[in-house]
## 1
Amino acid sequence: MILTNLPIGENAKVISVNGNNRITKRLMEMGVVPGVSVRVIKSAPFGDPLEICVRGYHLAMRKSEADTIQVQSPKSKIQSSE
Amino acid sequence: MNSKIITAAEKQGAANGGQSGKSSIVIALAGNPNAGKTTLFNALTGLRQKVANYPGVTVERKEGVWRLNGSEKTARLIDLPGLYSLDATSLDEQIARDVLTGKLLDLPKPDVIVAVVDATNLERNLYLVTQLLEYKIPVVIALTMVDVAEKQSLEIDTQKLSELLKISVVEVKAPQKLGIDELAAKVLETAHNKSVLDNNLFFNSNSADDLDFIHLSLQDNGEINKKIFARYNFISDVYQESVKPKQTNERSFSEKIDRILTHKVFGLLILVAILLFVFQTIFSWANLPMDLLEKGFGALGDSVRANLSEGILTDLLVDGVIAGVGGVLVFLPQILLLFLFLSILEDTGYMARAAFLLDKLMSRVGLHGKAFVPLLSSFACAIPGIMATRTIESPKDRLATIMIAPFMSCSARLPVYTLMIGTFFAGQTLFGFLSLGAVLILAMYALGIVVAVAVAWILKRTILKSPPPPFVMELPPYRLPNVQNVLLNMFNNGWQFLKRAGTVILAISIILWALTAFPRSTELETPSQAISQNQIAPGSQEPAVVGSTEENCGCSLEGAKKIEEEKQGLALRNSYAGQLGHLIEPVIAPLGFDWKIGVALIASFAAREVLVSTLSIIYNVGKDSNEESEGLIDAVRNAKKDDGSPAWTPLTALTLMVFFVLAIQCMSTVAVVRRETNSWSWTLFMVFYMTALAYAAAFLTYQVGKLLGFG
């Protein structure tokens, strides 16, 4: 699933960051690379942007940017293996 | 090997014309934003620092002198802009890369880089370090916030970290100046012993130039993303070996604060409250020093006039130089206070939250969340507002914000609004209970905002078109602001404003003074004392020109004062400004303005509030009248055009207000825009389009008003 749809407060692992543009690069430079664990903390008052926790710090990004990040939550892992 | 390096170093010294001196080494300070870089820079250099701009761009260039080991050896310390990466997407990153590769003409390639690394955010901070290592310049890590990391149960093995990265790692506590000596020692050691150059930790590349090439050529096919991935893989390994995190589920202190400060409802309320407090304080605290400055410069002008003989030089000094410089300095209290608050908000980490809260609203217009604070500041004064756009990273977004900032109704428009409303709309109500004056002022503010939004929307879709800038932004942990950083930042910005804007403003003041003071007819050069002794002579020579004004003011004012004021009025009418007023009369006639208002429009290009004093001079009620004085209000009400019809109607007043909402009419703003954009074409574009918009809107107001039967 995409990071945008990850329920607030839940941890997940980044599978891929899709795209090949400035935003992709910036996200990866900020430490959002495949394999890293992320958690959505909250969304801003008008629903956008999102605040996430990655590598122990807080990062804000728009939903359009979070859409490019594929994640796998531990729960969905269990479901898919069943 | 050793001798080879010395020759290279000598070559470098020679290439730079010996500028850096033989004993002086060049050190660059690099680090992520919020890593404590500024605090360390201030601790290392104290007040031995200077701030300028890199040539051709608005990136701030901070340089200082670091006395390594007491005073026997000094180093040039270059503070690079705060960076997450060196991949040259933003201007800051580009400049930093140019400094590191020695591409800037007046700066030699640094001998050592001190990388400031935040211990509480080790992985992301180390990313920049991996890139720095790729540039083959010796790196020493200054590890900050170790105490905070310990409180968060992060145990960092500095020794291990140093071994894995093969570079020196020094723990520093900049505010307490701890670890500074050790850092100096390691820097000197690293500068002398360049064996650390063989750092091919994660992938091999032979020189910085090759790497440059790879960075550029691979940008298109995703290879660069693989490189980022490789660097982070390396970092993850280093992190796991050198840090023992004690996993806790406890949410951080910042997260707890953010439960309230970025709350969906309370967050916005608190933001509004903070901003109200800041602007209220700026207005009320700045009032006293601004009054004092204004009076001080008035008194200075008077005493200069009293002590020097009458003449053109004295006039130039008093009306041109002193009035011009005073006009700039009067903004200084507001600028200092605004930057005091901006620094505090930035240092505490709140600024990022404000952008986070408001990004959705701002992005609808095509602007970044960070544009909000500069625009809001512009309601006080566009000058600090425009300076505050420096926090916006994307140059196009920043330019769009600068272009619309002067539409926010600043405090200098209030005297104009007050005069117009006091003269034509005082005491009137709308629907029986709303004060028409208050409604009109509100409407003027609203007009400014609506036009700003529309212009931003258009600019962002045409000449400033750019993909929406990534909003990927760190929300740094809340921290107490560092007093030294905040004060230094405030004074540096104040000084920059004075130095750069001051020179342009001084020049424009002198030009405007010359326009209003020349040409001088002979009888006007007679000293005023002589005229007051001989009251009849100048009065009898005037009637042809004075015409209508005699009826207006002749009745209420008598004696020497009146003569003196009429003399001033006559001088202005005959001056180049007066001639220009006549010249532009055909252009402004469709707005319902006569040539006298034209003179006021030209003079108030210096600053909006000058309109009031210029009208006072034109209508012979004395330069010292203000927007509330009865004399001026009566004079405006009774003023006649040259054909005898009333010069002002309520519709003319409304038209003038609309014009003042949209016209730039402030040379200080022009000077600051020139300085901040570093481009005359953008500055002239702004002057042109704002004036054109103001003209069009005023034209519409007057013509539609006339069709509807007003005026």
## 2
Amino acid sequence: MRWSEKLVLRLRSLFRRDHVEQELEEEVRYHVERQIEVNVAAGMTPEEARHAALCALGGLEQIKEGCRDMRRVNWIENFVKDVRYALRTMSRSPAFTAVAVLSLVIGIGANAAIFSFANAILLKRLPLLDPQQLVIVRQSVSYPFFSQLEQRNQVPAGLAGRKAIELNVTAGDSTERMIGELVSGSYFRVLGVSAVLGRVITEEDDGAEGARPVCVISYDLWQDKLGGDPQVMNRAILLNARPFQIIGVAQRGFHGSACRAGPTFSFLPP
Amino acid sequence: MSKPTDLVQGTLDVLILKTIALQPIHGWAIAQRIRQISNDVLQVQQGSLYPALHRLEQQGWIRAEWGESENNRRAKYYALTKAGRNKLEKELASWERLSAAIGLVLQTP
């Protein structure tokens, strides 16, 4: 017998249960009647014959239950029965059920909230080359001051400047308020972030005044607002209504150094 | 004549398969035939016969079909499948090995 035939057998026991039960009943009844005939032929009265036949079989219901146990779908039936029983019991004491459900909801919700917070703060790392080596200075400095620091070059590993700003981003057809980062040309090199498409901003872009403003967009922004267009490099987006040339798409998962979710992008100071 | 003996444990399946292998047959007749062929020595517990038949069917070794019985009544006939025939051969070989081994031990003077 192939597995398909076995499957038919199982499905039959599951979905045509009444039919299967009736067959079982008929099969056992046939047995009892044959035995009665034999017993009568051996000289018993009909009642005696019936009694003897049932005794020999040892309990009709037990036999039927034994046969049911052999169907491999019993556990499904039992499971459904258990679920129904549970639902019935719960509906009988709605107050208890409400308290139980509520405490589960609060418990799971609180755990999820705490975990997502702890995940962002403690566990998740910036998708950088070597995040443990990163030092963030939370002191704002002016751009000329930063330029001087950079020129003196006293930080062996590298120095990068950033400033998060909120601005109107027009990409595709829609305009949205988003958080972006103004970054220095060394930013991507120091953090070790690369581009999946095009290139990242380099020191070369720390250009002369009036140089064409460029930006790197985040992977999510590229996917969500620009449809993952591979020709995106030929397009410009408007930041606060000023056109910026897109020069690249940052690696997936990089949303700027603030570890924030959401489409963020980096661009040069205009 | 002594009382019919209960079956050796684990032999019910092979007895059923062997009985069915001769021709399609219904449950009641299986019990009768085993008893007759064994000269009333082997008595199949009727209570365990039907669960065993259903188990063998679920395992794909026998197939059930409804048919007319010898006294013109509807009865459930069991027939051996191809898998069942293979199973029977394996069981027979294993039984022969086992009984020969037991015979060797018991006949040692």
